[in-house]
Design brief:
The chain has 14 helices and 18 strands. It is α+β, with helices and mostly antiparallel strands. The strands form four sheets. Strands 12, 13, 14, 15, 16, 17 and 18 form a seven-stranded mixed beta sheet that branches. The protein has a four-stranded mixed beta sheet with strand order 2-11-10-9, with helices on one face. A four-stranded antiparallel beta sheet has the order 5-6-8-7, covered by helices on one side. A hairpin with a 5-residue loop joins strand 5 and strand 6.
Length: 549
């Protein structure tokens, strides 16, 4: 999910997606440094796409350890409720165009330096500055001075003019528009503070990050594991029940599941279930199962630059035809064994303002006859005889899904479609980031904060296109942008959600991505985990609460 392109994020979700890379069995429980012989939780992960810099992480491989290394102004409980963490207070003016932020005193980074107001303002400015090419740059686009930091010829250390340090524990944020979501948005990883040591060598920092969160880095052995140990100086909202979390990198999700079944200590928890085990995991006596409705949406994106699929009449007809030619219920039943819900819009059933009856939702319903009719209308505009390929990461268990999608399009629409598996999640995301994929590609979103804005503005706004955010298909629609901005300026949540729904109706017509389904929060833990196993509002394990004692 992007996450974060999950990133499978989405996160955002990228997400980038939640079905991210899975795993090759290492069956090696050796630990080094502070982790040896301790109450360590071994967790499933993919190799992060990039070094662990908060504002350059928009997929779950990096997002999962990043979230545990860095505390932000606010944190979220397992249900997505926000509470101040590093912030003492976040106070808006009358129209939510300025915020005054006061920090709690005594917070320190793990290198012993103080967390100050400047720790935030410099980090946010670095993230926003185009010279630094950070993947989460667009999250800062509503702060005054953002446009100035998109110019050519920058050095990289220019600061956002909308950020002003008042004293060591106070700063103000001036926005170029009202943003009622801002006090929640700052809980996203990209808004983490950074110590002064970061700016001396960002690349080295990304390999050995220094944070202020519930854990600190012990070691990162690339393509094998990222070991975190409990931060004894952490003073935030999390009550850490273990001595550390080691993220083990897998390239085969079935191998990961079997390692959990083996109960030999090599792997303790994973937040997905391989297709081969979806029928049996809930009754599997060798593991602890979890399955509840979730917040992750699975989609595939067709780039707006792709010939015959641009955001014009022909492209919209083809996208609608493809969407209607997919029988989501059949895929969920046959491929996912019922462990998902058909998508009806672009957020999730757990998102404030969700609706299953928006105008255009019929474009997400299976109708093969209508699909052929729409495709013929598109052909009347400009004949298409090409092959539409569907790219996905082969290490994440997505093969059965995209085999089914391609077969349905061949059978129900009569077009030439094919899969294009890419070996690893990292290679796949690099192809997406570098705009090298010439066809449809797997996407999805794991939310960064509980708001429709996170699913909509961050994924489909013009500000998030062209490599400045998580708009991987580079979709651009000024009418959609305008409705999202109006929603951000709304005085009430109800008013905002109505505007976001109107914005979604534009997406349901244009279909910059094709929503497939909402993933259940499915996960499994080993029997070695004695307490605390559950999953949170991001469909992720409750890492800090888990213990083997």
């Amino acid at each position: 999910m992007k996450k974060k392109a999950l990133a499978f994020a989405a996160l955002a979700c990228s997400v980038a997606m939640l079905l991210s890379a899975c795993g090759g069995s290492t069956n090696n429980n050796a630990a080094s440094g502070d982790t040896a012989g301790a109450n360590i939780i071994y967790a499933y992960n993919s190799e992060p796409q990039n070094p662990l810099i908060p504002s350059n992480t928009n997929e779950t491989g990096g997002g999962k350890p990043g979230d545990l290394l860095f505390a932000r102004l606010v944190s979220f409980d397992k249900d997505g409720k926000a509470s101040n963490e590093v912030a003492e207070s976040i106070t808006p003016n009358d129209d939510a165009t300025q915020y005054t932020i006061k920090l709690k005193s005594g917070w320190k980074f793990t290198d012993g330096t103080d967390v100050t107001a400047e720790s935030f303002t410099k980090a946010w400015s670095y993230a926003a500055n185009a010279k630094n090419a950070q993947k989460a740059s667009s999250f800062f686009s509503t702060i005054k001075g953002y446009d100035d930091l998109q110019a050519d010829g920058l050095k990289g250390d220019e600061q956002l003019s909308g950020l002003k340090v008042v004293d060591d524990t106070t700063f103000t944020v001036d926005l170029n528009q009202s943003d009622s979501v801002f006090p929640v948005k700052v809980g996203y990883l990209a808004f983490a503070p950074l110590p002064e040591s970061f700016y001396k060598d960002p690349k080295a920092f990304g390999e050995k990050p220094v944070g202020n969160g519930p854990y600190k880095l012990d070691h990162w052995d690339h393509n094998k594991e990222i070991a975190l140990v409990k931060n004894p100086d952490y003073k935030g909202n999390e009550n850490v029940k273990n001595d550390g979390v080691t993220f083990k990198v897998y390239t085969d999700d079935q191998a990961a599941y079997r390692d959990i079944q083996s109960n030999n200590g090599s792997l303790d928890v994973m937040e997905s279930v391989p297709a081969a085990f979806t029928k049996t995991f809930k009754s599997d006596k060798k593991i602890q199962p979890y399955s509840e409705a979730g917040s992750v949406i699975q989609t595939f994106t067709i780039p707006s630059s792709l010939d015959h699929f641009k955001n014009d009449e022909e492209g919209q007809l083809r996208r609608q035809a493809i969407s209607m030619a997919i029988n989501r219920e059949q895929i969920i039943d046959k491929v996912l064994n019922g462990n998902a819900t058909p998508a009806t819009e672009f957020t999730s059933p757990k998102t404030p303002g969700y609706s299953d009856s928006l105008k255009g939702s019929e474009n997400l319903k299976f109708d093969a006859a209508k699909a052929k009719e729409l495709w013929a209308k598109a052909d009347a505009i400009s004949k298409y005889d090409g092959q539409l390929t569907f790219s996905y990461n082969a290490d994440g268990g997505a093969k059965p899904l995209y085999d089914a999608v391609v077969n349905q399009l061949k059978n129900n629409l009569g077009i030439d479609a094919a899969t294009n598996p890419i070996p690893t999640f990292q290679e796949f995301r690099d192809g997406v980031t570098n705009r090298q994929i010439k066809g449809a590609f797997r996407t999805g979103w794991q939310p960064d904060y509980p708001s429709a804005e996170n699913y909509l503005w961050q994924l489909y706004s013009t500000a998030a296109a062209d490599g400045k955010g998580s708009n991987d298909g580079d979709y651009k629609n000024p009418e959609f942008d305008a409705l999202c901005l109006q929603a951000a300026a709304a005085k009430t949540t109800d008013e905002a959600n109505k505007l976001y729904q109107q914005a979604e109706e534009i997406l349901l017509n244009d279909l910059p991505a094709i929503p497939l389904y909402y993933s259940n929060a499915n996960g499994v833990a080993s029997l070695s985990v004695k307490s605390g196993f559950g999953m949170d509002w991001q469909n992720l394990p409750t890492y800090t609460e888990m213990s083997k004692k």
